[in-house]
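STRUCTURE:
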């Protein structure tokens, strides 16, 4: 029989519950919301039924339950809240915050339900509660006595429930395990405010909200400063909504952008308070007098529209009464005593600790779903959306505009168009010179400010206010309008600096800005740009750096072209990049130092921007010089294909302009191109450009250059498995370089010959050759960090069975290569260390290092190289020792390591025992022998020689 046939009658206690913010929780959790909702229902049903409650209905996240006893109902609520609090939810953010409301009154069930005003009163009490709070009426409090030990009811006073004329005394259940501090109940007589009603949900910024709320509570004037479209207004309103209860005389929002006459700022603020002018008395005095004895928070938005007038009114308000606080938003600070300037950061691009989307991506996902009629983005679009969010520098307005474009574009298509940020985001929208009819920034009472201001003036129109309102709306219609709003306030010097800074892709230091502007001291102009939030200042221990958000940079770049300054500024930027490349190879004393590719990592975006200019409108010769400085970096970062593409674009620029390039520079470029092609697996292209390099070097008549080019000829031959021919070429080049007095320029041929000798087992000759190469390598800053001599000597030592020497050489090579950023070459050395561990009775560690080296090498697009068959042979031997399952587990574990983690693991390997009897030259057991399977002692030598070498 249904439980509804046994509904309590007479004195009945009704309970309503629901999840506070369930819609937002569902949006945040997505597919994860359903299990949370189900678990919430299970916990409530278990605890409520155990106390004798009868469930009448469940709808969504709501419960309606009837109890025959008020004490049992309170006990049930207490048990339910404790169960919810103690439950192990998936994440802290997924905890459902349930509000509960109780009321007791006489009621009789009819046809399995109640038709009584007492039910509606209980529902209104539940609606007044906050998540985690249990509220009850005076009647429930009266009939629930006595209370259990440690439990009490806190009197919250009289409140008018919505829909009821009388006032109800509300009580809050207080007990161990329950929250105690809550805002005032959400009843009809709540604290007044005029905060705008938001049309969209607020996404992310949890840390920023907490910090800004703390500052607002601790300081009387807080100014939120940031670029246009950074989300200042939205964040300020969100924070203000959370501190309403702390200001019993109200929280009042005023958009200063609706005021064009400085004298009307005080009128705009007074208007929202309903104040009228007093004859013969300035409105600011009336305003100050009204606020003097009150605890009130003014949220003054877009104060940069009238900075001086707004600062004056704020100063008067703060001086007039200690209960007045101001939360302002502006693109620049006021400079008032006691002002706390808080610069709003971009939306975070970092994923949450639980793997949830970053704030920037979460906002883009939310707004994209809204733009597409509620249809969320598919998993296939996530990568594209992440690219879009990252490119927009976490600027909320830019993300909102991008979401609108995703109605007609896929995420990938939009990401491809973001080289022209303004064009991609603003296309199809009204610009600043074309008004938008009936546009509203807020869903709510933005226009009330204007209407009340008119009423305060006796019903007469306020001059300029309507026009200002339209301007305020237009400034957020497009990114161009947003930035123009600030650009028009700049002095000529500040505007010029902003335009010229657009040539930089990333942050720059003060010395770089001074270098760019040459004789024009930029400090004053730079300070203005920082104060107006058009340039972001980022302090570091070594000094501040300065950068523009991408949408602002795009705007400044347009202005740069419009001003006819682009060619001069871009060429100056190219010159700076060439200077930075040269400086990366010099120490503080101006002398050459060992090349470190880490010095080029922070320059990469700047160099790409400079290459783009040289390949389209600048000097191709300068572009080739930039490419020459990036040759090693491209290969070691797995970007050889990118390098090849830049070189082809530069060749096209040369053909277009007919620019004359010296033969020596062409030879060096073609040689470097050959190396990029080889690293990218393009063997025919590698050989073709090697031949072009040789021809250009011969025309240049530079013996050293020709030796370097010829030394590289062995590489494509090795890649094509022509080992005998490669050895012949190496010997010829080495001999020719000696005869022409440039032996050091044949170093690359020496390394290749040593590897070829190692391959066919001529270990003594390889070792002698490498010994002669040591002083040459040491003398060359470009080669010292790679320690190729030690790498090949380590391989020779492995082939000899000398585990100690192998360890010593490989550790030196691996440490140096990682210390100087040669990541691609470090992968080879890491694999060699895996072999060393296999021969050192550490097969599990060997398998992990094999996995790590393979994963890193694949990510860096490393070519197999001359050692590839050896690696495979040794890896197979380790697999045979461990068995497939153990080997695969260790290999997979290594593949999950980063290159840095894997190198640290390899460098931590204990040094082989040097004690007598260690077996240094007595033969090394094979993996099978160490496993106890017997077999002969062996040393590896290549057995397959396609050319009989």
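SEQUENCE:
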């Amino acid at each position: 029989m249904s439980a509804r046939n046994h509904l309590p009658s007479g004195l009945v206690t009704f309970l309503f519950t629901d999840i506070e913010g369930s819609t937002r929780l569902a949006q945040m959790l997505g597919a994860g919301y359903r299990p949370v909702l189900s678990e919430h229902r299970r916990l409530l049903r278990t605890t409520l039924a155990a106390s004798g409650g009868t469930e009448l209905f469940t709808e969504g996240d709501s419960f309606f339950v009837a109890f025959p006893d008020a004490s049992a109902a309170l006990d049930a609520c207490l048990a339910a809240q404790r169960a919810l609090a103690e439950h192990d939810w998936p994440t802290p953010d997924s905890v459902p915050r349930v509000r509960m409301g109780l009321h007791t009154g006489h009621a009789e069930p009819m046809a399995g339900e109640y038709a009584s005003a007492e039910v509606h009163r209980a529902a209104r009490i539940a609606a007044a509660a906050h998540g985690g709070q249990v509220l009850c009426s005076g009647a429930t409090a009266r009939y629930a006595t006595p209370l259990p030990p440690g439990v009490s009811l806190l009197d919250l006073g009289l409140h008018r429930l919505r829909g009821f004329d009388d006032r109800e005394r509300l009580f809050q259940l207080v007990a161990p395990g329950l929250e105690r501090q809550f805002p005032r109940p959400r009843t009809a007589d709540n604290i007044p405010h005029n905060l705008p009603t938001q049309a969209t949900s607020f996404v992310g910024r949890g840390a920023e909200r907490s910090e800004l709320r703390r500052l607002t509570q601790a300081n009387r004037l807080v100014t939120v400063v940031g670029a246009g479209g950074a989300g200042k207004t939205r964040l300020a309103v969100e924070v203000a909504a959370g501190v309403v209860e702390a200001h019993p005389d109200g929280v009042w929002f005023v958009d200063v952008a609706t005021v064009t006459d400085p004298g009307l700022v005080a009128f705009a603020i007074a208007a929202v308070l309903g104040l009228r002018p007093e004859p013969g008395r300035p409105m600011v005095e009336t305003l100050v007098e009204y606020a003097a004895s009150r605890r009130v928070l003014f949220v003054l938005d877009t104060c940069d529209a009238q900075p001086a007038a707004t600062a004056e009114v704020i100063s008067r308000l703060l001086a007039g009464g200690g209960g007045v606080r101001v939360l302002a938003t502006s693109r620049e600070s006021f400079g008032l005593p006691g002002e706390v300037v808080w610069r709003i950061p971009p939306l975070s691009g970092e994923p949450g600790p639980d793997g949830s989307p970053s704030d920037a991506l979460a906002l883009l996902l939310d707004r994209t779903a809204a733009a597409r009629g509620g249809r969320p983005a598919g998993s296939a679009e996530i990568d594209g959306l992440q690219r879009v969010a990252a490119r927009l520098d976490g600027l909320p307005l830019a993300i909102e505009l991008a979401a609108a474009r995703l109605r007609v574009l896929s995420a990938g298509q939009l990401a491809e168009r973001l080289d022209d940020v303004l064009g991609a985001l603003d296309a199809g929208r009204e610009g600043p010179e074309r008004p938008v009819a009936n546009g509203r920034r807020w869903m709510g009472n933005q226009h009330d400010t204007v209407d009340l201001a008119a009423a305060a003036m006796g019903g007469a129109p306020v001059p300029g206010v309507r026009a200002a309102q339209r301007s305020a709306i237009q400034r957020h219609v497009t990114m161009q309008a947003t930035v123009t709003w600030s650009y028009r306030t700049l002095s000529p010097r500040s505007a010029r600096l902003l335009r010229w800074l657009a040539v930089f892709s990333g942050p720059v230091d003060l010395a770089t800005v001074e270098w760019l502007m040459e004789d024009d001291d930029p400090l004053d102009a730079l300070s203005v740009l920082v104060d107006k939030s058009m340039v972001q200042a980022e302090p570091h221990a070594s000094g501040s750096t300065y950068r523009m958000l991408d949408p602002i940079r795009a705007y400044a770049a347009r202005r740069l072209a419009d001003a006819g300054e682009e060619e001069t500024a871009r060429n100056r930027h190219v010159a700076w990049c060439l200077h930075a490349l040269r400086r990366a190879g010099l120490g503080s004393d101006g002398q050459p130092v060992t090349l470190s590719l880490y010095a080029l990592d922070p320059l990469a975006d700047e160099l790409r921007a400079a290459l783009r200019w040289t390949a389209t409108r600048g000097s191709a010769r300068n572009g080739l010089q930039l490419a020459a400085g990036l040759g090693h970096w491209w290969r070691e970062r797995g970007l050889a294909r990118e390098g090849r593409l830049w070189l082809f674009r530069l060749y096209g620029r040369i053909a277009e302009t007919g620019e004359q390039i010296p033969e020596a520079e062409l030879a060096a470029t073609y040689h470097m191109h050959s190396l990029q092609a080889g690293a990218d697996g393009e063997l025919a292209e590698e050989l073709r450009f090697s031949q072009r390099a040789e021809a250009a070097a011969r025309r240049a008549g530079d013996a050293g250059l020709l030796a370097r080019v010829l030394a590289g000829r062995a590489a494509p031959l090795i890649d094509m498995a022509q080992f005998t021919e490669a050895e012949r070429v190496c010997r010829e080049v080495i001999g020719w370089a000696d005869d022409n007095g440039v032996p050091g320029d044949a170093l690359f041929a020496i390394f290749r010959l040593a590897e070829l000798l190692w391959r066919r087992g001529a270990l003594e000759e390889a070792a002698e050759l490498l010994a002669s190469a040591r002083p040459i390598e040491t003398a060359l800053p470009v080669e010292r960090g790679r320690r190729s001599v030690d790498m090949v000597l380590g391989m020779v030592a492995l082939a000899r069975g000398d585990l100690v020497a192998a360890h010593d050489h490989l550790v030196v090579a691996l440490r140096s290569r990682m210390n100087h950023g040669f990541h691609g070459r470090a992968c080879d050395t890491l694999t060699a260390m895996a072999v060393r561990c296999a021969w050192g009775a550490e097969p599990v560690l060997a398998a992990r290092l094999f996995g790590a080296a393979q994963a890193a090498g694949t990510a860096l697009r490393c070519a197999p190289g001359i050692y590839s068959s050896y690696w495979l042979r040794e890896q197979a031997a380790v697999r045979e020792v461990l068995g497939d399952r153990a080997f695969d587990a260790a290999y997979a574990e290594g593949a999950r390591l980063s290159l840095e983690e894997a190198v640290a693991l390899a460098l931590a390997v204990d040094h082989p025992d040097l004690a007598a009897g260690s077996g240094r030259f007595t033969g090394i057991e094979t993996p099978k022998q160490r496993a106890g399977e017997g077999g002969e002692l062996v040393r590896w030598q290549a057995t397959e020689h396609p050319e009989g070498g």
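REMARK: Residues 428-475, 918-949 have pLDDT under 50 and may be disordered.
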